[in-house]
Design brief:
The chain has helices spanning 3-34, 38-44, 52-62, 67-87, 93-129, 141-151, 155-161, 178-193, 197-218, 223-243, 245-252, 257-277, 281-301, 308-318, 320-342, 352-386. With 396 residues, it is an all-alpha fold.
Length: 396
């Protein structure tokens, strides 16, 4: 099979990685909002009273404790796909830049702005459905932040939201937006990166090594410092895999690579979950990025039987951005309904799966009516540029 055809045929599997990561983030946030696990759960239900089933269920719950690490997987995948996107545009540099940013603006902002309105509407609906939530004297962190977010439904916070920033809380209390700012910073650098690829990769590695001391040791939380000394490296990993994929693929064709990559990914998944539980975020992030790199190489070079489960996961990959954008307002709305009908703000029962299912449904609707039309708009833009020879753009 032609290498380019092979690459295109396996892209759906790479998007599927993003879909699984997005689903994981949904479960992670549903747990935080709709279930009181961890120490509070152990205080309420001492382990001395547990059965084998209880241990099994709690262990499963704890496997969804690395939500931030799934975002690092997004970053690696973004690096790969953006490198591919930039490579497939030909022509003068100014034309390439104009096309690249036009597509990024449509791709990111149309669903993003729509999700802001959804998030704000949910906070306003809560005032009608469960007004008591806005008058609680609660010590629970989530409830306190919800009050702050409701008070921060302002034009200034909306304006900050347009650049993926916040006042006290993100607009509409959709705190999943935090990762979009780092994506945006990366996009700003893209046209310049490919003029100096090797230098960029070397500098990225040096910054990351320095970040072991700056970020991990001193717990620095500045946005630009985090990007330069940690997150940029994960985008760089994805880009390097795409740019040097032919050379790297030689190793991926070795006899036991498939088994080793799959086995290592599973082991690393458990390790970075444990590290996340112990708040060793820097190293958990790093291992999750390595996991993403292994999975990309695995799926780029080895076919997977297109079973019903794989098809379902691929569909999840298609709607992953929508799912990421709308799951928090969806879960918050479910939380408001729980409060309305139970009067409780803490739930020890495993009810968070209701929020997960609701998020999948809302995510699919949002994808169908908001994100999918924006993708069609991008296709129209591509066709229009193909009919302008003076731009010399060849879009794959």
């Amino acid at each position: 099979m032609n290498k380019s055809l092979k690459l295109n045929s396996n892209l759906a599997l790479l998007h599927a990685i993003r879909g699984v990561a997005a689903f994981y983030v949904v479960v992670y946030h549903a747990k935080f909002i709709l279930w009181s696990g961890g120490k509070e759960f152990l205080q309420q239900f001492p382990r001395s009273s547990w059965s084998i089933t209880d241990y099994f269920l709690f262990s499963g719950d704890m496997l969804f404790s690395a939500g931030s690490q799934m975002v690092m997987i997004f970053f690696v995948l973004s690096g790969f796909f953006i490198a591919m996107s930039w490579k497939n545009i030909t022509g003068a540099i100014t034309d390439k830049i104009r096309y690249f940013y036009s597509v990024r603006l449509i791709r990111i902002y149309i669903p993003y702005i729509a999700s802001i309105f959804l998030s704000v509407i949910v906070l306003l609906l809560i005032a009608e459905i469960s007004p008591g939530l806005y008058h609680l004297n609660s010590t629970r962190e989530f409830n306190s932040r919800l009050l702050v977010a409701n008070a921060d439904l302002t034009l200034s916070n909306f304006a900050r939201g347009l650049v993926f920033n916040k006042n006290n809380e993100y607009i509409g209390f959709n705190y999943a937006y935090w990762s979009l700012l780092y994506e945006a910073i990366f996009y700003l650098f893209v046209p310049f990166i490919y003029q100096f690829k090797k230098i960029y990769f070397i500098v990225s590695a040096l910054f990351f090594i320095t970040g072991i001391f700056v970020i991990d040791r001193f717990r620095v939380d500045n946005i630009f410092v985090k990007f330069l000394f940690e997150y940029n490296f994960y985008f760089a990993i994805g880009q390097a895999i795409y740019i040097y994929r032919e050379q790297i693929s030689r190793f991926a064709q070795l006899k036991y690579f498939k088994v080793l990559a799959a086995g290592s990914s599973i082991i690393l998944f458990f390790i970075f979950n444990v590290l996340a539980l112990f708040h060793q975020d820097f190293w958990a992030d790093f291992l999750s990025a390595i996991t993403a790199a292994l999975l990309i190489l695995l799926f780029l070079n080895h076919d997977v039987r297109n079973s019903l489960i794989i098809k379902a996961i691929k569909k999840l990959g298609e709607m992953s951005y929508s799912l990421y954008l709308v799951h928090i307002p969806t879960i918050i709305f479910i939380y408001a309904l729980f409060y309305k009908y139970t009067g409780k703000t803490v739930f020890f029962e495993h009810l968070y799966f209701i929020g997960v299912i609701a998020s999948l449904v809302v995510g699919w609707v949002f994808y169908s009516f908001i994100e999918k039309p924006s993708l069609l708009l991008i296709k129209k833009l591509k066709r229009s540029l193909k009919h302008k020879p003076e731009l010399s753009l060849k879009v794959a």
